[in-house]
Design a protein that fits this description.
The complex is a heterodimer of chains A (about 230) and B (about 250).
Chain A (H helix, E strand, L loop, with lengths): L1 H7 L2 H26 L6 H12 L10 H31 L14 H4 L1 H21 L11 H9 L2 H29 L6 H28 L6
Helix pairs in contact in A: 2-4, 2-8, 2-9, 6-8, 8-9
Chain B lengths: L2 E7 L8 E7 L8 H14 L22 E2 L2 E2 L21 E5 L8 E3 L2 E2 L2 H8 L21 H11 L6 H5 L6 H12 L8 H14 L10 H5 L7 H16 L4
Parallel strand pairs in B: 1-5
Antiparallel strand pairs in B: 1-2, 3-4, 3-5, 6-7
The chains are: A mainly alpha (about 230), B alpha+beta (about 250).
Chain lengths: ~230, ~250
């Protein structure tokens, strides 16, 4: 196992870790977004879906067991993603001790330049989001197991809905660069493949963002919940 | 043309530097950027002042010596062009131009606009070569090289080692340079015996120097005077991870 830690010292390996943990986290946000869309099918469906998550892995695993395994895995992925980002940021800041009096970006996008800030926004959002809609202790009227009720009462407040929309939009920018960048970091490139990489990043950044935004927007506009 | 220049002046490696303004009242649009600096320097010398030090050699865009950050862009505003091949017709009368040295911890300033790029030499020394047996020359065309590989290797070999990629990169990373050097040998049959060890050694040396790490902004590719593609960075990442995980290369 020693070789893995030795390999991790290399920034190229750290980027590979960021890419692989990024894939895991992307898989999570995509399925989370798809699950959220059940709210459009009414209270029974979304509440049954939420309860069903605890039954994942049945009959081999017991109630809630696989869900906890997934949660631990996600937490590890978030931790490694952040650790390598932090270490690489430190390295990169040291590599240019004196900055230019004038610097004109040529190709960097808004998304690529704001990855670090986007990541920090998403981190704070996740903490708030877990307290708000999973644990429920920062929610004004939290009913355990009644996902539909918790969502509707939360997002009828324009401030909360607005904050969620802002947070998932910054997630969208993060994905726009990250979903393309991961191919480069893992060395998955080729003349035919490269056009696909960009299209893939655009498509899934848009799908995840629109999917997530649709829920608070639908509740705020009164499409759901009346 | 009448121009105003803001130039970085620094007396030596450890001296404090600062931006200084110079007027260049008699610039011809036919001059190259370096010839424009020559004229400015001539006047400075006539006035008994220290001329502005900058690196230059062939002035044909093939040696990689010139290294000027012009208005915040490595080698200036013209794509696929070194500073020596950049002509003043790309500027307007009355323009104010900022000229700075490459900024990177791995490229310390020696004087004014001249930096020490020997970190690149050390990367080449660590593995940017092939080991061959001496003796009689092999028969021509004995070793087959697929045309597509030869073309790609040639694209990578076009790197002149100027360091614009490092200068432009927000992270001061040397991935484009190193990947071009790793790839141009790794793509041809003569480079295969040392392929794994080469990428491991060259990346190790790159990381031992004070370079940053790639965050895929594509800034390097945009300013590279030889238009080297970031596809080579992906290729180096692939070769490196494969060599470190699957091979015995240390």
């Amino acid at each position: 196992m020693k070789w893995i830690f030795e390999l991790y010292r290399s920034p190229i390996a750290k980027k590979a870790v960021m890419a692989l943990t990024g894939v895991i986290l992307f898989g999570f946000v995509l399925s989370h977004m798809a699950g959220n869309l059940k709210v459009f099918q009414g209270p029974e469906k979304i509440n049954a879906y939420a309860e069903g998550l605890r039954e994942l892995g049945k009959p081999i695993l017991g109630h809630g067991e696989l869900l906890w395994i997934l949660r631990v895995g996600l937490l590890a992925a978030v931790g490694l993603h952040m650790l390598s980002a932090w270490q690489l940021t430190k390295l990169n800041r040291k590599a240019r001790p004196i900055s230019y009096a004038k610097r004109t970006p040529q190709a960097a996008t808004y998304a690529s330049r704001t990855m670090r800030y986007g990541g920090v926004i998403i981190l704070f959002f996740i903490v708030y989001h877990l307290l708000h809609l999973t644990v429920g202790n920062v929610h004004v009227d939290f009913k355990h197991g009644d996902v539909y009720h918790n969502l509707v009462t939360a997002f009828q407040n324009p401030l909360i809905a607005g904050f969620y929309i802002l947070a998932v939009t910054s997630l969208g920018f993060h994905l726009y660069h990250g979903l393309w960048s991961l191919f480069q970091s893992l060395g998955w490139s080729g003349p035919r493949f490269n056009a696909f990489r960009r299209q893939f990043a655009i498509a899934f950044a848009a799908i995840v963002t629109v999917g997530f935004v649709s829920v608070p927007l639908a509740i705020l506009s009164g499409f759901i919940g009346h | 043309m009448k121009l105003t220049l803001n130039v970085w002046r620094q007396a030596g490696p450890d001296a404090e530097g600062r931006m200084q303004r110079y007027e260049a009242p008699d610039v011809s649009p036919e001059m190259s950027f370096l010839e424009m600096l020559d004229v400015v320097n001539q006047r400075l010398e006539e006035n008994g002042e220290e001329p502005i030090v900058f690196d230059h050699d062939c002035r044909e865009g093939i040696c990689g010596a010139c290294s000027l950050m012009i208005d915040g862009v490595a080698h200036g505003p013209q794509a696929a062009t070194t500073a020596c091949q950049l002509h003043m017709r790309h500027f307007k009368d009355g323009d104010e131009i900022t000229i700075e040295p490459w900024r990177a911890a791995a490229f310390p300033v020696l004087k004014d606009l001249m930096v020490d790029r020997s970190a690149f030499d050390r990367i080449i020394q660590s593995g940017g070569y092939i080991s061959i047996n001496t003796g009689s020359a092999p028969d021509a065309n004995e070793v087959l090289v697929p045309k597509v590989d030869a073309d790609q290797a040639f694209e990578a070999a076009a790197c002149i080692g100027c360091g614009a990629c490092v200068a432009q990169c927000p992270n001061g990373a040397a991935q484009l340079f190193t990947s071009a050097k790793v790839s141009h040998l790794g793509l041809v049959p003569q480079g295969q015996p040392e392929r794994d060890q080469r990428v491991v050694s060259m990346v190790a040396q790159m990381e031992a120097e004070a370079f940053g790490s790639c965050t895929n902004h594509r800034e390097c590719e945009a300013v590279c005077p030889k238009e080297i593609s970031i596809d080579f960075i992906a290729r180096m990442n692939r070769d490196y991870l494969k060599a470190r995980i699957m091979s015995r290369a240390k």
